[in-house]
Specification:
The complex is a heterodimer of chains A (about 425) and B (about 350). With about 425 residues, chain A is mainly α. Chain A has one domain (about 1-115, about 180-420): M75 peptidase, HXXE motif (A middle domain of Talin 1, Up-down Bundle). Chain A contains 15 helices and 6 strands. A two-stranded antiparallel sheet of chain A has the order 1-6. Chain A has a two-stranded antiparallel sheet with strand order 2-3. Chain A has a two-stranded antiparallel sheet with strand order 4-5. The radius of gyration of chain A is 22 Å and the shape is globular. Chain B has about 350 residues and is mostly helical. Chain B has 2 domains: about 35-185, A middle domain of Talin 1 (Up-down Bundle), CATH 1.20.1420; about 200-340. Chain B is about 60% helix and about 0% strand. Classes of the chains: A mainly alpha (about 425), B mainly alpha (about 350). At the A-B interface, strand 1, helix 10 and helix 15 of A face helix 4 of B. Chain B: Keywords: Signal. Chain B: InterPro entries: Imelysin-like, Imelysin-like_IPPA, Imelysin_sf. Chain B: Its main location: other.
Chain lengths: ~425, ~350
Amino acid sequence: MKRFLTPIAVCVSSVMLTACGTAVVKNETSAVNAESVVVHYADMAEAIYSDSLTTAQTLRTSIDAFLAEPTEANLQAARTAWIAARVPYQQSEVYRFGNAIVDDWEGKVNAWPLDEGLIDYVSVDSYGSESDINPLYSANVIASKNLMIGGKKVDATNITPELIAESLQEADGIEANVASGYHAIEFLLWGQDLNGTNPGAGERPASDFDLENCTNGHCDRRRAYLSAATDLLITDLEEMADNWKQGGAARVALLEQTPEQGLSTILTGMGSLAYGELGGERTKLGLMLHDPEEEHDCFSDNTHWSHYYDAKGIKNAYLGEYERVDGSWVKGASLSALIAQDNLALDTEMKQKLNATEMAAQAMVDAAKQGQTFDVLIAMNNTQGNQLVQTFVDSLVDETRVTEDVIHHLDLQGIALEGSDSLDNPGAVFE
Amino acid sequence: MNYFPKLLALAISTTSFMVSAGEWQGPLGGITNQVIKQGYSVFSDSSQQLQQATQAFCAAPSDQSLLQAQTAFQTNALDWQQVQWLNFGPVTYFMRYYAFEYWPDKKGVTQRQLRALAQGDPAVMDAPKFWTSASIAVRGLTAVESLLYHPDFTPSESATQCQLLQKVTAHHFDSANAVAKQWQEAKAQDWVFDEEGSGFDAESVALEQFLQQWIEHMSAVKDAKLETPIGYNSRENLKLAEFYRSDLSLKAIQRNLQSYREIYHVGSPSLYDMALQKSPELAQQLEEQLTKNIKIALQLPDDYFQSGRTQEERVELAIPLVKSISNSQTYLANLVTTLGFQIGFNSRDGD
């Protein structure tokens, strides 16, 4: 669902729009214009997707080492690499919604939630054995060399990136058939989290990948799947990293627009991620259902960090800054500076809201360190935990309201922010 | 009810006009008293009958008592359709609206959570505030339908499942009864709040919210209830139809469409009467289209949502109804604007 804002008649000064030309402004104290903000936003994307790619390559190296020697220590190292790879990627999510190229591509790398029984063995007690909606709910590709998908026989003898991308991903037109991307790899590295809303993540043993001491069968095919899915993730990230380089399709599509349309793209991503996606689908719905399957990184229990870095990405987009994985910073012309030029109060309010969201996300991170991961926080009767999550939702909603004020202030036309069913009347939920 | 994955609620548009006090009293009072209060009263009564029927079934399980419980469920689920269009007022508290019906449940959350409850300690469900804070997936009609119709559940053979069924229906009745009672003691204006503190006309704001909810629901009926399951624009999946297990999918749509005409005509003056004053042609166009919707929906075969016909046949049969509801959406949106309300955005469009 999209919400179409009705613009109000507050125009950005035409003098301001032409004052600074096309140069990227690297000094925050300098005057900025819409064009410089949009160009810098593209530069940040280039850095973020580049980091996403390099951390995925590091993950690949860790997985190679693990498969060469499938010990618990090497499995843990691969898991650590996966968590590290999420840091830049989650900060890239603010580029969704507004940029069609990103949105069309995103499902390949971060689709969620997934019916993991498509990929590998699952516990029938918690997962069940069939779904009303998904005939491939328990297809278990790792255990099956032949599959029937949409009435057609598919040869899955060799598990390759092509098989995953072309036949398994969203098989039978069902979104929950997530065969590729971070969460497919996450499932392979952690396995199902069978702890419900109690503490604890997935506990897949390293021996699930051990050819000589194989547990749960089909270790050769599980290894092949893990390798293929990781290779595919890298290929997909390469594509997006290239898209944001000079002359890349996403950058060109962004910059071909007017600068005002470019600002709309930025704000669409900020508002849609904050409100509909992060606040609604990924967080509030979990509270309403108290269901551990409703957490974004449900196998690894890394959701607190994923949410934190999603929120961070929104803040980055507004402030025009991004801390790279090597510790260096990308800084430049920002929406913040643009707004502050003629409405300092609005810029201050926006920054306050972004900081409040960051603090709320940090509170979830702190809770996770004490064993209260996201799935524990959303458990029924965990009043304090629920409230912690609700505070995060509320802060995202507040942030989005001010994002709307920014949109109105800039007099941007036809912006559609993603909404969320689960955010309807949030104030009444926990009365 | 969760039926539309992307439903917006961030901010409500503001009325762009000033009206004299009491101008909207006719339609607002009519809709409140004759559609909402009456609708919830009926819904509450049949919720109680459902509770009693499941009690009787669990006391003496048999094909006969199961059938009686299923019949009570069907009556109650269709009574819900009369008031489903409105997520406003008492139903918004304790997530009741979403709990009355959690749909579509694409991930099988209801079945999974029911299994967990049935396998767990039943005493947990007797804890204070358990049901008001429980998952929306297990608190209402979707859960009851699963327990009565889903092959994974056999309450006639399982005392724990039957106990669960009774607890769900008891909570469901409590909720429906609470909403009905709260409406009996209130008026629509009591449920709108001046968030900005700048003063407002509660009557017009309440009616505006009614109209907005009506528009959104009409969109949902066309998209989520009709087009999506039959694959009007994409792949068919009849299991995405509302209450498909109990075969109420078509009847639910018919009830929804019937409720629309009531909304339009109740009160003195009614919305229709006021629309006639402002824009006679548009008022009449909407009237004719709402009537046509019902006629076309009633002409669809009873087994419309059942397997046994091709997707093409089903889509062909749906075309007149889809077009008719689309026209209704246009007329209603235009009429709402003509009456001076500002409905600023599209919401339950399932996009």
